[in-house]
Write a structure and sequence with these properties.
With 723 residues, the protein is α/β, with parallel strands linked by helices. It folds into four domains: 178 residues, Orthogonal Bundle (MutS, DNA mismatch repair protein, Chain A, domain 3); 104 residues, MutS, DNA mismatch repair protein, Chain A, domain 3; 216 residues, P-loop containing nucleotide triphosphate hydrolases (Rossmann fold), CATH 3.40.50.300; 41 residues, SH3 type barrels, CATH 2.30.30. Helix 2 packs antiparallel against helix 3, helix 6 packs antiparallel against helix 7 and helix 6 crosses helix 11. The termini are far apart.
Length: 723
Amino acid sequence: MNKINEKTLKDLEFYTVLNQISARCNTELGKEKALEIRPLRSKEQILIHLGQTSEYAASYTNDNRVPNHGFDAIHQELKLLKIENATIELSGFKKIGSICNTVNTLKKFLKKFKDYYPLLFEASEAVELNLAIPAHIDAVIDRFGEIKDTASNDLRIIRQEINIVKGKINQSFSRALSMYHASEFLDEIKESVVDNRRVLAVKAMYRKKVKGSVMGTSKTGSIVYIEPEAALQYSRQLNNLEFDEREEIQRILRELTLHITPFTPELALYQDFLAHLDITSAKSKYADEMNAIMPEISDKNELFLRDAYHPLLYLTNKRKNEKTFPQTLYLHPENRIIVISGPNAGGKSITLKTLGILQVMLQSGLLIPVHERSKVCLFNRILTDIGDNQSIENHLSTYSYRLKNMNYFLRKCDDKTLFLIDEFGTGSDPELGGALAEIFLEVFYERGSYGIITTHYSNLKLLANELPNATNANMLFDNKTLEPTYQLVLGQAGSSFTFEVAQKNGIPYSLINRAKKKIEKGKVRFDATIAKLQKERSSMEKTGSKLREEESKARSEALRLEELNARTKSKLENYQELYDANQRMIYLGNKVNDAALKYFQDKKKRLLVSELLRLVETENSKRQKKSIQQVKIEKEKKVEVEKEVIQKVEVIREEKKKGKKIKAFVEKNKPKPVFKVGDRVRLLDGKAVGSIDKLEKNKAIVNYGVFTTNVSINQLELVEAKK
């Protein structure tokens, strides 16, 4: 599949992307290998790499983070293992042990969580779990990177003897130090260290009075450094023992190297696995920074990039806190070629490069910043002609170089090719170059190739309009300010706004009119028509957007009203059913009451029983046979309605109680009336009205006509005062 050449990768700035991924690697080997990423050769490889990166990126959002996979490269150690009788240094064994332990930890982790990381687990299965190498190294080297005393019996004995000799040296040196210090032969510093040996700091005038070996003098010559004679004999013995120690350590390391030599291929695989994991980690970090995903990969020749961002532009703008405008592109068998036109600085080249870099990244196993509903296909070739490629070395002009490039396109283009050409046909006479470019485009179209070109040539815009499976597109401009909006619109060619942009940049109107007279009127009218259509389209887009918003709001409101109407209708039906059921119960109750009254009067049981049976049979004849489920549903519905009614009744009762309390409060705080004989009054909790015949202290005699009563004035309320 992979026939994407170096020129395409350079044109699309793919190496800049690789540099950014390399910077996110943790290891030096990972950084080197990241720069070697290239488009993969098969769909299976692409899916594996994309899947592994997606799995690693998913680990950032769950509790099962992939363990650390950092390591130091062991290239030198692997070379030494292939040389007979070679010996690896201590630091080399430390790196080898670290790599083995890291791989073993990762293998155990990925096996435990293989349901979360199936593809990473599958990659880890390519290397075997090896506990022998760390065991050999741990038996010889401690965690500080030093040879253990227990590495061999001879080494243990030698080090014991070294410790004894060092003890004797210290004792003899201490005695000499005390003796010469008492004799005042020593300088104030008393002692020092020269060539890793303790020496006495003797004053120069007393050098001949101190027995021993002179090891050096101070810069001024006032101090002579002497190793005491008593310690000198032990120092020679220590030198011999240290030589024996070095020889034994070298023998142990040579033996350890022999133990590890059979595992050389395995160690190389370990290093490659960890480097691959480091690159996968870097790719996932890169994807996370720009919200990149793995889109659907289609087997059909269909490419739909929704809300696609150019990765380099997106990250640059993100650092500057500036907005990046996404693009939506759709290529399929009915629309294989898009011709983008419009003024410069409108985003045509960025749109073209966005498609190219995202396609190359995807085919190299990198996640891309697009909407999750995007769909992509894979191409065997991606051909590009972007920028001014004038070659001074080969004495080629820009146009000569582009013609040479077009010749390569013509030889390689097929239905599995994606071509991207910026400023198609430029570099020569507009009419002649445009005609040749038109022929090239026809050939690409006939071969079933997919592609995007940008151009200012009117004949190419017309050709795209005539070809059934090609379409024009333009980058929208604000029709008032002539500022770009960076939005791609399919279906219509774009004006170059040559004269409008010139006028906006201060070119005198008289000069612009003179320029218009220099060219054919038809071309001016054609460009003016396109510009007018583009402005109208921009205006219609804004109007359409507003109408869509209003339609959406109206639809939401209609749905809300429909739901409210349905709920209200359901409640009314439930209330009607409850009312009908209660009316039937009242009717039956009245019938039973009548039968009971009749029985009370004549005591005829037979008539009572027959009447009750008649009632039951009449009711049963009205009932239809219902399933248990229907009865259960109706019962639940009835219970639900009754609950709702009870709740409403409770609310009404509460309101009544509040009303009574308010009334009582008002009554309590109302000013008490002054009663007089003849006033019409009634009791607070009564209805009968009487007149006061006599008042005595807090008592009143009230005449109701038939009888009189003596009551407290506090229990009375005034109905009508005496006139």
